[in-house]
Amino acid sequence: MANNKVSMAVIRRLPKYHRYLKEMLENGINRISSKELSDIIGFTASQIRQDLINFGGFGQQGYGYNVEDLYNEIGQILGLVKTYNTIIIGAGNLGQALANFNFGSHGFKLEGMFDINPKVTGLRIRDIEIMDMDLLEEEIKNKNIDIAFICTNKDAAQSVADDLVKFGVKAIWNFTPVDLKINNGEIIVENVHLIDSLLTLSYFLKEK
Amino acid sequence: MANNKVSMAVIRRLPKYHRYLKEMLENGINRISSKELSDIIGFTASQIRQDLINFGGFGQQGYGYNVEDLYNEIGQILGLVKTYNTIIIGAGNLGQALANFNFGSHGFKLEGMFDINPKVTGLRIRDIEIMDMDLLEEEIKNKNIDIAFICTNKDAAQSVADDLVKFGVKAIWNFTPVDLKINNGEIIVENVHLIDSLLTLSYFLKEK
DNA sequence: AATTGTTTGTCAATTAATTAACTAATTGTA
DNA sequence: TACAATTAGTTAATTAATTGACAAACAATT
């Protein structure tokens, strides 16, 4: 199971494999070749084999891949074997929407929500209390929080991120239209820049 | 202003340029070199020049780029010169969150929201009525809808997409964890696969 | 058991994307 | 006005990513 520098392009395809394999598993398909997978998922068969080889290769010549095994392997590669503790910072519409997404079923347990607005602090979303930001440090440390979702407005994002890092969070899922400056190279930052996505759509729409 | 096949990598960087240039403009910076921009935005100076050359090149040797001009040019490239009419399908937590995002300020005017759930139809979010899906065809045609945001559950996504295409929508912004099958090659589909993003984060978290 | 067909893993070839080097235009200054 | 400094545009070199080809391994069949 080699692991010297897997490219970002490959990594970003893994969740899609995982998604499709799960579906196949649910449909009772227990064997698949790279060619068949190619037809379904839209990557070339060669690319699929190359991608999987990055992590050791899980197939068998003349047979293909066992769907369940491959699903489990990719799950493992994606770190879906343990549960991560998460919190949401900013309990506005987006924060509340994410709280209701139930990422818990994928192994991401929501442990708390935070906001500065006294109109929402004290409320509960899906049994999770919205707490004041004053409690952030304590909660991160007590509950051993791994991942924080930043759903504040863009002006608050950087200072919130600084606090999160200071208090020991390991990864940030950033929903604000800001590129966070994080000095600590150990901290993972994953952005969901909705406006960038919409502008990309707009680009292609204009091209027509 | 050449335009023979700009690569996806370049296109997906454009919104970031646009974002940073806007910020500079607001800060009263009116001139910038590729080197300075590189320090701020994190792409190499060479890449920045290469990117811009795809669209004709807007700089001047010995001077750099005029921030306002470049901002406007990129805005134009991204199609931000006209207003697009949008609707949201699925008025659950996410749909409501997106309605409150106010993409109108970027030229994306929200013209309606739709849901099948009678508990939410009739309600208003930011002065936009949540309508029953029965009215979808009529509204798309009357209001000349360009873009639909799909925020339904994943099981409804494909059939909603089929209807949207049939009724004349030009682009779909898909928030469901499904890869929509659209035959009509003229239709733009832009995905926001939140779970894929979270699993990518998870991958890097596991790597540490 | 032998043979045919399938399919991965591997390696090579190709294509795409990024980075570096260079040239010529322009700015700013003495 | 002349000259040094700056900097985009351009071309070339490098690196990365994708695709194609094929041998070895295995499965299925006779």
Low-confidence segments of chain A: none
- Total helical elements of chain A: 8
Oligomer: homodimer
Largest sheet of chain A: 7 strands, mixed
Overall spatial form of chain A: globular
Amount of helix of chain A: 40-55%
Beta-strand percent range of chain A: 15-25%
Draw up the topology in text.
2 copies of one chain form a homodimer.
Chain A (H helix, E strand, L loop, with lengths): L7 H19 L4 E2 L1 H8 L3 H9 L11 E2 H11 L6 E6 L3 H7 L8 E8 L8 E2 L2 E5 L3 H7 L4 E4 L3 H14 L3 E4 L13 E4 L2 H14 L1
Parallel strand pairs in A: 3-4, 3-7, 4-6, 7-8, 8-9
Antiparallel strand pairs in A: 1-2, 5-6
Helix pairs in contact in A: 1-4, 2-3
Chain B binds a DNA duplex (30 and 30 nucleotides) through helix 3.
Keywords, separated by commas or semicolons:
alpha/beta, 9 strands, two-stranded antiparallel ribbon, 208 residues, DNA-binding
Can you walk through the features of this model?
2 copies of one chain form a homodimer. Chain A has 208 residues and is α/β, with parallel strands linked by helices. The first copy, chain A, is 43% helix and 18% strand. The first copy, chain A, is built from 8 helices and 9 strands. Chain A has helices at 8-26, 34-41, 45-53, 67-77, 93-99, 136-142, 154-167, 194-207, and strands at 31-32, 65-66, 84-89, 108-115, 124-125, 128-132, 147-150, 171-174, 188-191. A 7-stranded mixed beta sheet of chain A has the order 5-6-4-3-7-8-9, with helices on both faces. In chain A, helix 1 crosses helix 4 and helix 2 crosses helix 3 (45-53). Chain A is globular. The N and C termini of chain A lie far apart (45 Å). Chains A and B meet through helix 1, helix 5 and helix 8 of A and helix 1, helix 5 and helix 8 of B. Chain B binds a DNA duplex (30 and 30 nucleotides) through residues 7, 9-10, 33-35, 44-47, 49-50, 52-53, 57-65.
